[in-house]
Design brief:
Elements: H1 3-13, H2 17-47, H3 58-87
Helix pairs in contact: 2-3
Amino acid sequence: MSYELKELELESLKVGLSQSVEYSFLLQSIDQVWQDHLSRMNLLKESIGWRSYGQRDPLLEYQKEAYKLFSNQTVKIRHNVSFLVMCTTSFA
């Protein structure tokens, strides 16, 4: 089912429902992915010290890894919201 059909289906039930559903899914996904991101950042903080033993600058390693984690976070949010919107069955 295409996005336009899904939007028409939701709008036929109630005006503004598709936007409300998308907003709800977006907030839910941001919350879930952000909690996961914070957990990963804690793990990174705990493990980054070991990189200094490998003659690497821990600060630079932390910055690179943190940037990768943050970039992946936005991709996950987009994927989750798209999946939830397109795979949700009728709300009727």
